[in-house]
UniProtKB/TrEMBL annotation:
It is an enzyme of class 1 (oxidoreductase). The gene is mvaA. GO terms for molecular function: hydroxymethylglutaryl-CoA reductase (NADH) activity. Pathway: Metabolic intermediate metabolism; (R)-mevalonate degradation; (S)-3-hydroxy-3-methylglutaryl-CoA from (R)-mevalonate: step 1/1. Belongs to the HMG-CoA reductase family. This is 3-hydroxy-3-methylglutaryl coenzyme A reductase.
Length: 410
């Protein structure tokens, strides 16, 4: 019987594609049997460079933080931001919620709202029992369904929200399993039920971090005031806010990816939270403490992540990186990730307020250009240094300087 494409081995799939022998071999070299079992129609791995933020100080403890990202300047900026924050004790955390909860929804349209309200009130104990029986393992770990609430979204649309404590797991499978069972229990309203699905909103999953930087570390009070002005700008101009948040997620996403978590869910939740006031705003806030001569920054982020389960447990790379982080609890991991976001944001704002973002960015970008024109690993840094001294740079100039370096070496 002929196998379908998804049933074939990675090698069989590659053979079916129109590839040159060299391209087929290149894909084969980067295959991994563990990863082949994770995604559909697997053919090969796509690798991201991974570096570390060497000394992130969080509540007095130093962490070495793995970051997986292709953008040249991000890890350098995160280290710079953390260095500045470390002058005044590093980054600190503030608890703003009793527990991180994940939200699932039963979605109804054209339903009798009064009857649905009555059903939820009358059968509260049974609704709890259905959830507990659907996922007894999470109940044994102290989690499970915490609260059920009904929200009227319009004259026709209603969401019944299930707030669930998924403990150390991100919890998508836990929530969706409970919702499937609850959907069956809500049988009297089944004709009006559009579906049952996890929400990636994340506002029941908030983490707050803050830190202080002495004016002297920044280069003076004028730079601090400029950073605060830029922060104010990002509260009233979505063009500025979206770029500032992208910078925050440069750091956040790199750690989320390195730990096997879902960076798409984290970014979607973050951007939704940035719009909660009705306009899109920066997720961070910077102000001046004139008495202490310090810049003060804080960042609040929804972080729907886990430290166990799914790809986090399945991927050896993620397990290595969590070991590098000293195997943190999920709450500590959230705080580390938010801390990296704050450090990243500080470095970006400092660059804009000082020499400009492009100067530092291009110093790192020249490394990529060096590789682009054929530099060998030992030639990359010397070529990048030479390029950084030039007023204008392009591939032709990079190639010319590379030839000069090679002539000098020979």
């Amino acid at each position: 019987m002929t196998k379908k494409f998804y049933e074939k081995t990675p090698t069989e799939r590659l053979n079916e594609l129109s590839l040159t022998a060299k391209l087929r071999q290149d894909f084969t070299v980067d295959q991994n049997l563990v990863n082949a079992a994770i995604v559909e129609n697997y053919i090969s791995d796509f690798r991201e460079p991974e570096g570390v933020l060497r000394r992130l100080q969080l509540d007095g403890h130093f962490y070495t933080v793995p970051m997986a990202i292709e953008e040249p300047s991000v890890i350098a900026a995160a280290n710079n931001g953390a260095r500045m924050l470390n002058f005044n004790g590093g980054i600190f955390t503030e608890k703003i919620q009793p527990a991180a909860l994940t939200l699932g929804q039963l979605l109804f349209e054209d339903v009798n709202v009064a009857a649905l309200h009555k059903f939820i009130d009358q059968f509260a104990a049974e609704i709890q029992r259905v959830a507990d029986l659907a996922k007894p393992s999470i109940v044994k770990r102290g989690g499970g369904l915490v609260k059920v609430q009904l929200r009227e979204l319009s004259l026709k649309q209603v969401s019944v929200d299930f707030l669930i404590d998924t403990k150390e797991a991100m919890g998508a499978n836990i929530v969706n399993t409970i919702l499937a069972a609850e959907k069956e229990f809500f049988q009297p309203f089944i004709q009006h039920c559009l579906g049952a699905i996890l929400s990636n909103d994340g506002r029941n999953n908030l983490t707050k971090v803050f830190g202080r930087v002495p004016f002297a570390v920044l280069g003076g009070e004028a730079v601090a005031n400029k950073i605060v002005a830029l922060s104010r700008f990002s509260k009233v101009d979505s063009y500025r806010a979206v770029t500032e948040n992208k910078g925050i997620f440069n750091g956040v996403g790199a750690v989320v990816l390195a730990t096997g978590n879902d960076w798409r869910a984290v970014e979607a939740a973050g951007h939704a939270y940035a719009s909660q006031q009705g306009t899109y705003q920066s997720l961070s806030h910077w102000s001046i403490d004139a008495n202490q001569q310090q810049l003060v920054g804080e960042l609040v982020l929804p972080l729907p992540i886990g430290s166990i389960g799914g790809a986090i447990t399945a991927l050896p790379q993620a397990q290595r990186n969590l070991a590098l982080l000293e195997k943190p609890s999920v709450q500590t991991l959230r705080e580390i990730i938010a801390g990296v976001g704050l450090a990243q944001n500080l470095a970006a704002l400092k660059a804009i307020a000082g020499e400009g973002i492009q100067t530092g960015h291009m110093r790192m970008q020249y490394r990529a250009l060096a590789l682009q024109v054929g530099a060998q690993p030992h030639e990359v840094l010397p070529l990048a240094r030479r390029l950084s001294t030039q007023k204008t740079v392009d591939t032709q100039l990079a190639s010319q300087i590379l030839k000069e370096i090679r002539r000098h070496e020979s």
